[in-house]
Design brief:
With about 220 residues, chain A is α+β, with helices and mostly antiparallel strands. Chain A contains 2 helices and 14 strands, in the order H-E-E-E-E-E-E-E-H-E-E-E-E-E-E-E. The longest helix of chain B is centred in the N-terminal third of the chain and has 17 residues, at about 5-20. The chains are: A alpha+beta (about 220), B alpha+beta (about 190).
Chain lengths: ~220, ~190
């Protein structure tokens, strides 16, 4: 009896392991894997060092809203400077971010919380990253999807077939979506509208391109 | 400026700012960040009515307005309205006074600022360094430029550091025209 019990336990634990490893997120549920067309993908949206990327920003966090101006600029091959100011121009935060490092040049006391800084840095890193190594390619009628790895996490890059632009990035663990980034771009040079939507916490960052010559 | 010039200048500014019951002006704001290739430009209008109603409204490139009135801040962000009760917040009181004072020129409070005076051919320039530690965190120095002819402010420069500042150029200023109370509703 004891022996059969042990066997049963062993079988069930193996079963759990097998089943759980089969469980994947539903990001690319209706997509078919296709052969890789290329091994790298370059995101153009924040990659030009001659360009000042300036956006009106609306941040909703835990039901509270914070608005201001989001500014990003590529200052060398690896690093972006990111500044968030009020509409009046007061600097609220000033970061330098690369894929492996970050530096806080300044931050106002009200925002100086470790968890908030870490969240913003990882969001901005995802937003500003330009170079991806493609591990897998998937396809359906609307999009081509490039699966890329980031440590233990995955980034799914959705390329709209009709516009031929990057329209979405899903940042995900093996089982769970964490962050969705939505891009609208008319020229594939910069994005006119960006939404960073967290799935696991109530945080949404909306950026609208700042056209100084708009009416 | 010599001591005598400072006295004459302060008197002429005080005379003008004392007469101000209402003030409306257009403005262009240039945000200078040293690492950017050009300044970020926004523009709009500002309306003030005694004793302390203030509208600061951006029209380009987006629509965003902030109203200070009776201890409240009313915000309208592209039609999305919100209100913040600031009650007796000393800091906001100071910010309100600072904005109005910057535009009217009535900022010569030695208790609040260390003040220095400069002149060139057409303009007088005053530099104010806040003494309040809370205010000092946001603004290192305020520089007001006055036209010599009418002793009113033509430019406000808010310095965050030596490299980064906000420069606001005032134009089409109208003093003591009738201002409707409705200007200060959200």
């Amino acid at each position: 009896m004891q022996k059969s019990m042990k066997l049963l336990l062993r079988i069930s634990s193996i079963l759990v392991l097998v089943l759980s490893s089969c469980v994947t997120n539903t990001v690319v549920k209706d997509y078919a894997t296709v052969p890789l067309e290329k091994t790298f993908f370059e995101v153009p949206y924040f990659s030009d060092p001659a360009f000042d990327y300036v956006y009106k920003a609306n941040i909703t966090v835990y039901g509270k809203e914070l608005t201001g101006i989001f500014i990003a600029k590529k200052i060398n091959d690896t690093t972006h400077r990111v500044v968030f100011t009020t509409e009046f121009g007061n600097k609220l935060l000033d970061f330098e971010i690369s894929e492996t490092d970050f530096k806080v040049n300044s931050i106002v006391d009200e925002l100086n919380r470790k968890m908030l800084i870490n969240t913003l840095v990882s969001d901005f890193r995802l937003l500003l990253r330009s170079h991806y190594v493609i591990k897998k390619q998937l396809d359906n009628n609307e999009n081509t999807v490039y699966l890329t790895e980031q440590g233990k996490m995955f980034n799914y890059l959705f390329i709209s077939k009709s516009a031929n632009t990057l329209s979405k990035i899903v940042h995900s663990s093996k089982r769970k979506e964490k962050i969705n980034l939505f891009f609208s771009s008319e020229n594939n040079i910069f994005a006119t509208k960006i939404i960073i939507q967290h799935i696991t916490m109530p945080l949404k960052i909306e950026l609208n391109y700042f056209n100084e010559h708009a009416n | 400026m010599s001591d005598n010039e400072i006295t004459v200048f302060k008197q002429s500014v005080a005379l003008v700012s004392k007469k101000i019951k209402t003030l409306s002006t257009d403005f262009v704001q240039y945000k200078h960040l040293d690492f950017l290739s050009k300044d970020i430009e926004t523009s709009g209008k500002m309306v003030f009515k005694e004793p302390n109603s203030l509208l600061w409204q951006y029209k380009k490139p987006y629509s965003y307005s902030i109203i200070f009135k009776n201890g409240k801040i009313l915000i309208n962000d592209e039609g999305k309205k919100s209100a913040v009760d600031i009650g007796n917040s000393k800091l906001f009181g100071k910010i309100n006074k600072l904005i109005v004072g910057s535009v009217s020129g009535d900022l010569f409070d030695d208790k609040e600022f260390s003040i220095s005076y400069f002149k060139n051919k057409d303009q007088n320039v005053t530099k104010f360094i806040p003494k309040d530690t809370a205010l000092k965190k946001y603004i290192k120095q305020i520089e007001l430029t006055f036209g010599k002819e009418d002793a009113t402010v033509v430019q406000v420069k808010l310095m965050e550091s030596s490299e980064d500042y906000t420069r606001i150029v005032l134009k089409n200023k109208v003093i003591n025209a009738k201002v409707d109370e409705a200007s200060f509703t959200n």
